[in-house]
Amino acid sequence: MKYKLIVFDMDGVIFTDDNFWSRMHYKYDTVDEGFRLTEKYLKTDVKKLADEVIGKLWKGNSAEGFFELIETAEYNPGARDLFAALKKKGIKTCILTSGPTELARKAQRDLGIDSVYGNEIVIKKNKITGEYKWLSLDYSHKGETFLGICRELYVNPQEAIVVGDNDQDIFKFEKAGFSIAFNSNSEKLKKAADAVIDDNNLMKILEFVK
């Protein structure tokens, strides 16, 4: 099958670091409480987690640390060459992430990615306001979000490839025509994938693009 769209997860796939929000906890010295809340709510109540972390722990802090993390984020090897090659093939590219939209937009500018979908922390007067705009407050909806993106881009889901690295990406894998577990530590994800790439060289994705 000739594929028309590739949907990428962001943290750990496009960028080397696999969890931007964890880096935020270190930057704002909220590691202990942040990780406790993550353990408690990540799999059961993402809205509560966002309310507690963004709405309380980070509220009122300067946004300088947030923007510094975005500025210093590093791409996985082969990122620029991969997206240049995909553009030459006429394949649409997209980021669908639970990470920050601002980081996805950096990748969009640098790599020429067609569209990005992520989560946004509201910042005013260089301060974290405690408000947020979340793409989805339930990770199980990622598959439905993926289908919505396909409709928006006029692409049959069976003509789309999904690339991810953690269990949350399984919901997208189940809907796509082809799925790639990329540099993942999740055996569950690997079993759900059509193909597995066990290192972080993004150019290896081209082997599966027809």
Describe this structure in words.
The chain is of the alpha/beta class. It has a single domain, classed as 3-Layer(aba) Sandwich (Rossmann fold), CATH 3.40.50.1000. Helix content is 40%, strand content 20%. It contains 9 helices and 7 strands, in the order βαααααβαββαβαβαβ. The chain has a 7-stranded mixed beta sheet with strand order 4-3-2-1-5-6-7, sandwiched between helices. The longest helix has 12 residues. The termini are close together. The model has no long low-confidence stretch (mean pLDDT 94).
Q: Mean pLDDT, nearest integer?
A: 94
Q: Give the fraction of residues assigned to helices.
A: 25-40%
Please report the number of helical segments. 9
Q: Could you say how many structural domains there are in total?
A: 1
Examine the coordinates and then state which fold CATH places here, giving the name of the CATH topology.
Answer: Rossmann fold
**Beta-strand content estimate:** 15-25%
How many β strands by DSSP? 7
Shape: globular
Q: Which regions are unreliable across 5 or more consecutive residues at pLDDT < 50?
A: none
CATH architecture: 3-Layer(aba) Sandwich
CATH-defined superfamily: HAD superfamily/HAD-like
CATH class: Alpha Beta
Order of strands in the sheet with the most strands?
4-3-2-1-5-6-7
Main sheet: strands, sense, barrel: 7 strands, mixed
Given helix and strand content, the structural type is alpha/beta
**Rg from C-alpha positions?**
17 Å
Q: What is the chain-wise order of helices and strands?
A: EHHHHHEHEEHEHEHE
Instruction: Report the span from N to C terminus.
Output: 7 Å
